[in-house]
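Suppose you are handed a protein chain with no further information: no name, no annotation, nothing but its sequence. What can you learn? This example shows the usual starting point.
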Amino acid sequence: MTPTSPSRGWPRPHDVRVLEPRRLDPLAGRLRAALAARPGGTAGAAAVPALALCRVFRPGHDLFVEDGGELSAAWELLAGDRDPAGAARRPHALLGVRALSYAAGLARACHLAGDTDRRVVAVVRAGVLRSDAGRAALAELEHAPGPGVVVLALSPGPVAPGGLFDLGHDGAGRTGSGGFGSALFGMVREARGLLGFAGEPTAVPGVVVDGRRVREVEAALRRARDAGRTVVVRCPVEAGGRGVPGALALPVPSPAPSTAGASWAAVFDAELAAVGAERPELIAVCSGDERAPGIGLFSRTFPERTVTLSGSESHVAGCAAGLAGGQLHPVVPVGDGFVDRVAAPPGVTFVVGGDAEVVPGVRWAEPRDAARLRELLGEAAGVGDAVTVVRVPDGGVPDEVAAVAREGGVDVLCAGTGRDVLIVAVGAGAGWGLGVAAAGRELGLSVTVVDPRWVSPVPESLVGLAGRHGVVVVVGGGDALRAALAGGGLGGGPVPAVSEGDVAGGARAFALRLAGRVASLSGGLRA
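A reasonable first move is to predict its three-dimensional structure. Written in structure tokens, the prediction is:
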């Protein structure tokens, strides 16, 4: 007797692999009806693909990505409520072409880890492959290292198999005299007619299979799995479940030189290579954005850990997410505004150049010198549960500024003897802040200068420091940082931004203004 899920009467996913072939189609009918009866009724068409995938691949071991959620609903029904791995089968919210991008990243992660026993399967709606972004992602999959990715493209009926080969009812894969192999690799791959592309054809081979019968879908998937390259299996499905399956995503199981006179971009290139030498899980991703900091030294030092992508920003973000899902940590240099425009995935570090503004909701670091750049890159590479961003400014790198202490992750660059003024100097503003502190001392002011290093989220220790000083000044860091420190000190109210004019006017002139502000406070300074 075939084992079944507790109190459900369903064979478990791993038991479907050994189920007698004659029982497959009746089981698919039962599963389709049960899924169609669920709220929304859109998962019924997932029954046949779900069973075929269970028979060819290994849920919980092989890696699955999809662009919705109905297919995973079928697997969860088979698994039953007591299956300890059931939670691992719940889908991530990957939509459309991002599922393909994520799969490309997973494939590269498996290849870099030397994991040749695990396959990557992307389950998408066939319409995804017709878009420009879908074709670009498919081209990326074609060049993915290792055995390639199996793409199962589901489309609504009518069921009309045909294309590179046509599976007969016995699942033999008849293609004339040459069989599947010769049909797949011995002819021109014109996928426009096969997959319904409106644009240029793709070099990725494909097959159309009758999506009503588990054995035929199984046979096509098995041949695609063994093809040794990326293959698309288009599977028209009947709309008996009032919808086409969406997507399934299973998480991956756990598998510096002198900077004198150097530009920030050159120092970043060198420091990234240095951090990469210490962290073998670090992967550099070239997004093709000409405005992004370069990774030339890293790519020459670690060519096998360098990924060059083309295509849309969403494709780059999706592929990076797949690499992160494979227990790697991608570092992606991008241009200004990239992080604001895409759904940035956790476990990825973006390096932004120029005058990029702090994006709320991500962990944002601002290095003040070359040593801090390496330090912050290393810290960012250790964050797996959030998006991290390290900003690399334009221009030259200032001299190193050492901290005299660290309080709650905040570097204290200059500790005043009292609590007159706190200068929060973000990034390269540290040198100017120290100049103001020196001028303030000549005027009898006690000035403390700190560098938060991570400006988002705002460190709690920094908020506490602001509350213990009479006047708070913020150099850089964006509106969110100033808002978080508003009301700190006797001055109260919003914290004004230090303008370019203030910096150009010199440290002493600004210190004089601070002295006037401190003197005007009523009630004296806080004890």
